[in-house]
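[User] I wish I could look at a protein chain and see how it folds. I have put the entry right below:
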Amino acid sequence: MSDPRVLVMGFGSPLRGDDGAGAAALERLRAALAQQPGVDLVDGGVRGLDLLERAPDYDRVILIDAARAHATAPAWRAGQIVHLPSTSVRPRAGALVSLHGLDLGATLELARALHLVLPPVELVLIFVEDTGVGQPLSPSVAGALDAVVSLVKARIEEIVQAVGA
């Protein structure tokens, strides 16, 4: 049996401080997974719609992105990492929808509405603090990148064992 195909997409803009956390984690993964068969690392930039075109070709998808804590969830802190299935993500209430800026929840809702069959998708979210234009990653977020790389590498190993068995 061939190796399972895993797509890892990092999202965000490196020009907007901590919003570039997904892209920064992806760059570290490129070095850590250089020889991993069946794993494709893709910079998703800020266009979540690319997920809908790419994902059907894979057995599993891991998305890495920045997240902001809502006022109703003040316990989250910058640099904290959350790993969860995409089924727990919903579109933001009152979010503006355009072809330039669908949030992840809206993108997944669009896939359901179009009856697109996506493989299992999981999220690795890094809570952020500063997304100002021209800012570097905050120390909290930069300090979390090694843990993100370890988490994604571990998930890929588990997926290879589970799907490849």
